[in-house]
Amino acid sequence: MKRLTQQLKRKRIWIALALLAFIYFNNCSWLSDPPQGSPFLLAHRGMSQTFPMEGIMNDTCTAERIYEPEHPYLENTIASMDAAFKEGAAVVEFDVQPTLDGRFVVFHDWTLDCRTNGSGVTREHTVSEMQALDIGYGYTADGGKTHPFRGKGIGMMPTLDEVLSTFPDHEFLIHMKSDDPAEGLLLAQYLRKLPSSRLQQLTVYGGDNPVASAKASIPELRAMSKSTMIRFVLTYAAIGWTGYVPDSLRHSQVHIPEKIAPWLWGWPNRFMTRMTDADVRVIMVGGDGTEFSSGFDTPEDVRQRIPAAYTGGIWTNRIDRIAPLFPKEAP
């Protein structure tokens, strides 16, 4: 009996060692060939005025704390998107807000008071009212002594229609700023009218409820929210070591904070190969996932914080600074 117990114990040890060896070699990045291709750049809000990230809250008026302007572009405008694409962005992110007349304007804030010469809740205004505003009114780099964009942003707030028609062949990440499921349904109603080829160029993200309602209305839509991110990480942590990517994670988008990325099975080579095979678009963002819109905004950020073999998307607030590090695709 004692001998049999010892044999079973040794068998369990060998099984455990074999399993550990399988996990190691199946997820050892350095034993895997680097995936083919180069990273692509995602320009957050196009070319925009940036600001210190310290102490940012949901209700912080960032227009009142911008750095001294280095370029003439304002976020979420046609001009800023055009500049970002010309710099080398593969994808441009922009924000949408529903209007009182059932359309969408491209604008960041829940209210108008911070950036514009208007006031009140954004969605309680019509498109014509919104487009009559000066969207550069509130920007200041010196505590309100000067306003370098005041008077220059009149009529520059585009509609979703105008953005997509101006850039018919470009890819976008569309951000819904509320957690209202009705907003997701309204956006899905608009997107359903687009050809499938155009829909494939668009990704939607935002609050759990609007994203879920948009995804339920358009199952083939690439979409992402906090809940889908958590589900992705937990699911991949549980079974990703096998190399298998379940259908529930396929054809999706995931934003991976740089401090979490090294803990993912097979990071970076095997992980990126698996995600490519599963049609999962990976965007690498800065920090640990708790920071607001943290990205890679200097050449040093890219060189020091992104693996050389990484081939996914890179989130940046300064496309003008990091695009020169990457070759532009031929037209």
UniProtKB/TrEMBL annotation:
Entry-linked SUPFAM superfamilies: PLC-like phosphodiesterases
Enzyme Commission number(s) from the entry: 3.1.4.46
Stretches assigned to the GP-PDE domain: 39-326
GO molecular function terms listed in the Swiss-Prot or TrEMBL record: glycerophosphodiester phosphodiesterase activity
Pfam entry (one): GDPD
UniProtKB keywords: Hydrolase
CDD domains given in the database record: GDPD_GDE4_like_1
Highest taxon listed in the record's lineage: Bacteria
Enzyme class, first EC level, given as a word: hydrolase
PANTHER family (alphabetical): GLYCEROPHOSPHORYL DIESTER PHOSPHODIESTERASE, GP-PDE DOMAIN-CONTAINING PROTEIN
Protein name, UniProt field: Glycerophosphoryl diester phosphodiesterase 1
Gene for this chain: glpQ1
